[in-house]
Specification:
alpha/beta, 4-stranded mixed sheet, 9-stranded mixed sheet, about 325 residues
């Protein structure tokens, strides 16, 4: 990292980028209340609801992070044709996000995760979803819809934000990655279990430690960086990915490329909540990759961003000004 980089200029360049985000979107719904008594009908607490709030979740939270970095997110997903879809569109509108990449499918539900919280304690989560793959007809329509957007707009990077809810299928991956590689558009992946081995020929692959262990089928102890490198080399060979960025929670991040690797330790911070850190890391990695930064800087700035959002309670987008300040302090 010896080259002199003007990070003010780099961060300003983010504002020119269109980042396409393909994946599973959802509504994160929160219900807060007080528990004062136990139900006479069953030995369960009765919660008196005092406040409810809906927020954008899943791939839509990645879009919020991309937006917070100054870039223009283009969110592509399939949701249900139901009452919750209206709530989802309202949330997009409230957050000044476009719904141009969203398709509706009557056979699916709009995913909603409702968290019930009392006295800062998470009592229960209720999930409303279907997680089977898109049927062939809507899959074909979805692929054509994404390719149509890409042919009309300049796209600077593509993020696959996979939550195993069925919106991303092997065919969606194959068609979009092939098109992106022909156009020299970098592709980034935040994987889950189902499609893990389908992401071939992508630019940057970002599993967490658990996903790396499961995906490589190599047993590694946390902190064994040579073991992590061995597993990453296996994935480089099997998937033909350029960069492998592994998040290691309190141990920071690991990036491998060109038969070598680098580990970047986590910054010492007051951790309030780790929710959404992965969404932030893939978002900053996408704009750093689009701006042509090297692998170590992509990993280093992503690591800073992930730590910053962990200082806040709840899922919150990154603060670009704060991230720029810390990037200059750390890497200039």
């Amino acid at each position: 990292m010896t080259e002199k980089i003007n990070f003010n200029t780099v961060f300003e360049s983010f504002n020119q980028f269109n980042i396409l985000i393909i994946g599973d979107v959802m509504i994160d719904s929160y219900m807060w209340g007080k528990v004062n008594r136990i139900s006479p009908e069953a030995p369960v607490p009765i919660i008196m609801s005092t406040k409810q709030e809906n927020r954008l979740g899943g791939a839509a939270n990645v879009a919020l992070n991309v937006q917070a970095l100054g870039a223009n997110p283009i969110l592509c997903a399939v949701i249900g044709k139901d009452s919750k879809a209206k709530s989802f569109y309202n949330l997009l509108k409230e957050n000044k996000l476009s719904g141009e990449g969203i398709l509706e499918d009557e056979s699916r539900k709009t995913t909603v995760k409702t968290r019930i919280i009392s006295n800062n304690q998470h009592l229960l989560r209720v999930d409303e979803e279907v997680d089977h793959e898109l049927d062939k007809k809507i899959e074909k329509t979805f692929i054509q819809h994404i390719l149509s957007i890409m042919s009309k707009k300049q796209v600077n990077a593509i993020i696959f934000e996979d939550y195993d809810k069925g919106c991303i299928t092997p065919l969606v991956i194959k068609e979009i990655v092939e098109f992106a590689n022909k156009k020299n558009i970098p592709t980034l992946v935040d994987p889950k279990k189902r499609n893990f081995s389908e992401y071939k020929n992508v630019t940057l692959f970002k599993p967490n430690f658990k996903e790396l262990v499961e995906g490589s089928k190599i047993d590694i102890k946390k902190g064994d960086f040579d073991g992590v490198f061995k597993a990453s080399e296996k994935l480089h060979d099997e998937l033909s990915v350029k960069y492998l960025l592994v998040t290691l929670s309190e141990l920071g991040v690991f990036i491998s490329y060109n038969k070598s690797y680098k580990t970047i330790p986590a910054e010492v911070r007051d951790i309030a909540d780790v929710s959404g850190a992965g969404d932030t890391i893939i978002s900053i990695a996408s704009v750093c990759l689009a701006s042509g930064l090297n692998a170590e800087l992509i990993a280093g700035i992503s690591n800073l961003a992930g730590g910053l959002v962990c200082e806040k309670v709840g899922v919150v987008p990154i603060d670009k000004t704060q991230l720029l300040k810390e990037t200059i302090e750390k890497f200039s």
